[in-house]
Amino acid sequence: MREFTEQEQVRRDKAENLKKLGLDPFGQKFERTGFAEEIKEKYQDVPHDDFENIKDEYTVAGRIMFIRKMGKASFFTIQDKTGKIQIYISINDIGEESYTLFKTADIGDIVGVRGKVMKTRTGEVTLKCLEYTHLVKALKPLPEKFHGLTDIEERYRRRYVDLIMNDESKKVALLRPKIIRCIQNYMDKQGFVEVETPILSTLLTGASARPFITHHNAQNLDMYLRIALELPLKRLLVGGMEAVYEIGRVFRNEGMDPKHNPEFTLMEAYLAYSDLDGMMNLTENMYQTIAKEVIGKMNYNWYGHEINLEGPWKRISMTDAIKEKVGIDFKKEMTVEEALELAKEHHIEVEEHEKTVGHIINLFFEKYVEETLIQPTFLYGHPIEISPLTKKNPEDPRFVDRFELFIAGKEFANAYTELNDPIDQLERFEAQIAERELGNDEANDIDMDFVEALEYGMPPAGGIGYGIDRLCMLFLEQESIRDVILFPTMKQRD
Questions:
Q1: Where are the alpha helices (DSSP H) in 142-262?
Q2: Torsion sign, CA atoms 39, 42, 48, 50
Q3: How far apart are CA 80 and CA 35, in angstroms?
């Protein structure tokens, strides 16, 4: 049998007493005419003495966060979705029966109040209670007022309590949807159409990642939760939709850390007849639009860096960035043996499936360059070996038309001039299967239906993927992805 603390038992007893009074301890519909912050803002600058002639009334509802009981008159504070407002309650205004009911209230209970707006001598906008309504009895006490949930793990596991106690958490939770709505409005204005594509797939395609596997009972078929949005969206370009995007959950069966969650929100966008430059311009303008319209500033403090989103943003090739830091020019033709020797000299370990010049270039970038890209930087010109779905650079086919956006040493977006040659695409898929046989368990399957779609003709196009959670981390100045996801994946408790 479940055991309760003394406080929990007292609250349960109070709930039973409410039933005896003919009241539902867990409430019914309640009509509101105002919200805490709106009322306070409207009357904040009104002088105290002017309230003698103000008869304005509001009906509000929220959770009791503070009570100061003083005999026949008391103060308490309720919190709604906008913030907190103080209530003055007196037996002379609401009568003995309602005041006795109020005196049984606990911090955490949800109540309704109809009241006249007033201002205390200390200048605080307050509602003078004219009608008090019990709505919901909280059976568990809130954490201690000044500390809230001090255990960070518990904050993420019990997000509902975190939102009650932590104003910053609530601010983040309310701003994230506004950021996403701003992105949608921006993309719509650019002529894109938002679409939805399948979450379940029988093939592992679109990115290099380990998948989650589930089972379709009716077909007795194992299926993957999607790791990317790419190939279905590109099929829509073949179909003539020309400018499409999707914001959706993707799932990667990988580790968890402050920058990664196994399920996360990704946006991918594809624009027919565009290229890398088009995607760079789209991205820079989108970030600056969010900064201006949602947050209202261009400078952000993130991971100890002052990030300035004003343009123009730096654009540099991967080989030039490596040359700046190490002095090695990987633009020059070189054999795998020569590249392996350079890796050995710089103490870079190379796995069996990474023994290509392209993979070694990427290893040099990850060791010497990536963490140094602090201000927004478009890094382009990736080796073909690490970009299986990307169009070759026409001037140097060892590299592809791809860029990544880096801010504070972290990747924010990945863009391509999309590969639309079905013959080349099939060869890339086949090379991925060869990599899998060498031990790369993140290599892609061959998607023959996608190859067939390309055979009908896909227009030249630019494409890009954005990590929405990381984007929100920057704009909301949070250093853990768990602070911008309402319900992050957590380890199982014993």
A1: 152-157, 159-165, 167-189, 230-238
A2: negative
A3: 7
Q: Please, where are the H alpha helices in 399-480? A: 422-437, 448-455, 468-475
C-alpha gyration radius of the chain? 29
450-454 contacts at long range (C-beta below 8 A, 24 or more positions apart) = 450/205, 450/231, 450/234, 450/235, 450/425, 451/422, 451/425, 451/426, 452/422, 453/234, 453/235, 453/238, 454/238, 454/420, 454/421, 454/422, 454/425
| Token output for 71 | 């005999």
* 115 in Cβ contact with 61 (< 8 Å): no
Catalogue the long-range contacts made by 203-208 (C-beta closer than 8 Å, 24 or more residues apart). Answer: 203/445, 203/446, 203/447, 204/444, 204/445, 205/230, 205/231, 205/444, 205/445, 205/447, 205/450, 206/230, 206/231, 206/389, 206/444, 207/252, 207/444, 208/388, 208/440, 208/442, 208/443, 208/444
User: Which CATH architecture describes the domain 165-313+375-483?
Assistant: 2-Layer Sandwich (3.30)
- Model confidence at 153, pLDDT cuts 50, 70, 90, reads confident
In three-state secondary structure terms, 356 is: coil
The CATH H-level superfamily of 6-142 is Nucleic acid-binding proteins (2.40.50.140)
CA separation for the pair 127, 115 (Å, rounded) = 5
Q: How far is CA 346 from the centre of its chain?
A: 37
Determine the straight-line distance between the first and last CA of the chain, rounded to whole angstroms.
Answer: 20
**Helix (H) or strand (E) segment spanning residue 417:** strand 410-417
- pLDDT of residue 223 exceeding 90, the answer is yes
Bridge partners of 377?
314, 406
Nearest in space to 125 (alpha carbons), one of 219, 27, 11, 34: 34
Q: Long-range contacts for 341-348 (Cβ within 8 Å, ≥24 apart)?
A: none
6-142 and 165-313+375-483 in the same fold: no
- What is d(CA 220, CA 112) in angstroms, rounded to the nearest whole number? 53
Q: Where are the domains of the chain?
A: 6-142, 165-313+375-483
Q: Are 200 and 226 in contact (CB under 8 A)?
A: yes
The 3-state DSSP class for residue 456 equals: coil
Count other C-beta atoms under 10 Å from residue 485's C-beta: 21
Whether the predicted pLDDT of 392 surpasses 70: yes
pLDDT at 187 over 90: yes
- Count the helix, strand and coil residues of the chain and give each as a percent rounded to the nearest 5: 35, 25, 35
Q: What is the tens place of the pLDDT at every residue in 188-197?
A: 999 999 999 9
Structure tokens at 41: 């803002």
Angle at 137 (CA atoms; ends 131, 142), nearest 5 degrees = 115
Give per-residue pLDDT as tens, 300-334: 999 999 999 998 999 999 999 999 999 999 999 99
Q: Which residues pair with 305 in a beta bridge?
A: 302
